[in-house]
Amino acid sequence: MYGERLLRDRGLRVTRPRLAVLAVLTECQAHLDVEEITVRVRERLDSVSVQAVYDVLGALTAAGLARRIAPAGGAAHYEARVGDNHHHLVCRQCGGITDVDCATGAAPCLEPIDTAGFVVEEAEVTYWGVCATCRS
């Protein structure tokens, strides 16, 4: 199975909660918070604790199979879109999050004036505004 192979390729044990969380993130193709993920995982498994979902998300994020987005003032959200150079639009009214491709395309798309000895690998950009639904 696809999910099993992904987990094994990243050195993770294959467990039902990991497969379920990975499937939810992959199939949904959205930015979900832990509560939304837990509800969807519980539809697949008899039971799973919120803590187990947090643990799985931590493992998937560390392994590069999920990305954690934490807009200022809001709950963390997770997505399966990893390994590319994209950013996010966040609605100030409803909190909705939408992917937006990087304007320059190359990673990292922003270079600081002074790197203070760091090797910059990624730039995280969040655009804030009001989505079309909230504007209407």
TrEMBL record:
PANTHER family in alphabetical order: TRANSCRIPTIONAL REGULATOR FURA, ZINC UPTAKE REGULATION PROTEIN
Q: Disulfide bond: is it a keyword of this entry? A: no
The protein's GO terms of the molecular function aspect are:
DNA-binding transcription factor activity; transcription cis-regulatory region binding; zinc ion binding
Please verify whether the record's keywords include Magnesium. Answer: no
Q: Where in the cell is it found?
A: Cytoplasm
* Family as reported in the entry's similarity comment: Belongs to the Fur family.
Sequence positions that bind Zn(2+): 91, 94, 131, 134
GO terms for cellular component = cytoplasm
What is one Gene Ontology biological process annotated in the Swiss-Prot or TrEMBL record? negative regulation of DNA-templated transcription
**Which cofactor is recorded for it?**
Zn(2+)
Protein keywords:
Cytoplasm, DNA-binding, Iron, Metal-binding, Repressor, Transcription, Transcription regulation, Zinc
The free-text note explaining how the cofactor binds reads: Binds 1 zinc ion per subunit.
Mainly resides where? cytoplasm
This protein's name: Transcriptional repressor
